[in-house]
Amino acid sequence: MRLLIAALAILALPAAAHADAPPRFYGTNWDRDIAVAPDLVQDAAFRKMRATGVETVRTSFRWDLAQPAEGAAFDHSATDALVARASRRRLRVLPIVIVAPRWARASDETFAPPRSPSEYAAYLTALVRRYGRGGAFWNERPELPRIPIRAWQIWNEPHLPFQWTVAPDVNWARSYARLLKHAYRAVKDADARALVVLAGLTNDSPRYLRALYRAGVRGDFDIGAIHPFTRRPRNVLELAKRFRRVMRKHGDGRNRLWATEVGLPAARGRADSDSPLQTTDRGMARFLKKTFRLLRRSARNRNAGVTRAYWYTWASSYSGTIFDYSGLFRYRPGEPAAARPARRAYRRVAGD
User: For the whole prediction, is pTM greater than 0.90?
Assistant: First the structure.
């Protein structure tokens, strides 16, 4: 009986991180239906994250939900619940601070930038003071493991109009650079040792990064971020090298680089799409293993040097458009979450 209990305990342990991996290298994105599922469903998912080898979770902290009315106090209840859930499993959180409330947007579009960077900075300051080092949240919840949030990502993919919706005559790079400057000051004033993460930039990320440097972002971020969506793991590494080359050229060679979204959806033959960015379940699992191993090995290479990788995404519906087939789990409201082959691949690569 004792041997059986011991064996079960071993099976329940989380996958051990590879000795060559940087600290907190293994990440996942947390979004879609499961992010608003009942508490029991979310609790079970975070337990499985830990057992899979996940070390850090990237998710949205939405300003529009925290302050829907102008002048109202910030409502941190949603982010409190998420941070507590992650803390219980000793998972780090990487927030994407995003979505201005309707009253604070430059236009009526949902993903229009804030009309005033200082209003966005006020929300960001409140978050850092609540969840950062010495944050009020940790003082209120002494029973939780104290795992302060140390890095803050400023928006997501601002070069894409549906993520950063500006008028045709507005330069996206200059308008985002203005927000980033205010955000950087707000974070550092609230916690001088906290890190500011650039918004993730998708496939032609070196070109978008050059546009941001022309707009004046140098000195306003500590960590670059890429979203290299491609069918070939080697291309992920090549994009990281090109991105780093641009950073070095502009004097930011010492800045870290994270892949805050990386993935390949198992949508082939399922979604109504002719996109080349599709594969099968087995193909997604192979892509995950090869890509994470390549990025892990790159961490000490100054020419690439990706020190965190976040799979996109933890769970999705497996019904709809191609990225609905990207989850390590299939989750549909009212149904139990079901692991896909890529989940097993993640656990294996995190522990090999």
Answer: yes
